[in-house]
Amino acid sequence: MSNTEQPSNPEPETPNLEFEGTTPYEDYVRASVLTSLQHPLSDEPGEMVFLVTTQVMELWFTVLVHEWSTAARAVRQDDLPTAMAALRRSVPELEALNASWKPIANLTPGQFNAYRSALGEGSGFQSAMYRRLEFLLGDKNPSMIIPHRGVPAQYEELEKALYEPSLYDEVLQLLRRRGYDVPDEVLDRDLGKRYAPDERIERIWQEIYSGPQDTELVRLGEALTDVAEMVWRWRNDHLMATRRAMGSKQGTGGSAGVAWLERRAQNNVFPELWTARSHV
Ligand code: HEM
């Protein structure tokens, strides 16, 4: 700009300041509700970040349940573009979920002990949204819904999710519709039980992965593998944070703690997508 020219509008336009009642931001985000839910149980200043991290993770679980329910429905309707879009969105969401471990990943036992007793018997094990998330992945177990009996509406919702086909079940049905020999025993099994790997399903993935790589089913397999890998990472980051914060003590939820979590973290979801790789 030359010295003689004056800016026509020196002040950038300022945002609107006047609203009747609550702001449109508040109406959409409900920030005042969200930020009124942080009630630490101890006087330890470090408890706040533990509580908020847990709440943030609950919100991510909610997003993931939304994405994978969308994906499962779309697979059922043979709408693979919608399913793939939901699965692909869920991968960076899982990365964001896992990044939430950062602030509490390195707690010393002393720091954790400072508010641990205030948690009483409270444990993430009792998270209803985490159970829905696991059920969608095919990690089912009827005893996992027992803690929620005291809240009938939540219990009913979990019970429904327990017996509904998981995302992986919908994928197996799709493989059958695409002409693969998915056995009846796999499709008609008790859906309320944890999905058990089956060699015949492994052979189907082996066949898919042995063919051309640029097919819809390889892309679907890879999107599911990305999800499975990130779920494994969440479980292992949780295990490591727990090992650092409390060693081999018993968990607040009554389990053997690290030993119990170690067993849980070993499980890979969508098992045949992992084992089939050895035969391609
Ligand atoms: C350093 C902090 C943490 C420690 C020491 C810890 C410890 C534990 C332990 C020992 C268990 C086994 C059940 C029990 O006996 O309580 C457990 C389960 C669980 N925790 Fe945490 N936890 C931590 C942070 C979190 C956070 C932030 C979340 C987020 C929601 C969370 C979610 C879960 C879930 C979902 C389970 C059940 C896992 C399953 O069923 O396989 N935990 N935790």
From TrEMBL:
Region annotated Disordered, chain positions: 1-21
GO molecular function, one term: metal ion binding
Binding site residues for heme: H238
Gene3D superfamilies (UniProt xref): 1.20.58.480
Cofactor(s) demanded: heme
Family of the protein in this entry: Belongs to the tryptophan 2,3-dioxygenase family.
Its biological purpose: Heme-dependent dioxygenase that catalyzes the oxidative cleavage of the L-tryptophan (L-Trp) pyrrole ring and converts L-tryptophan to N-formyl-L-kynurenine. Catalyzes the oxidative cleavage of the indole moiety.
Annotated protein name in UniProt: Tryptophan 2,3-dioxygenase
Organism: Wenjunlia tyrosinilytica
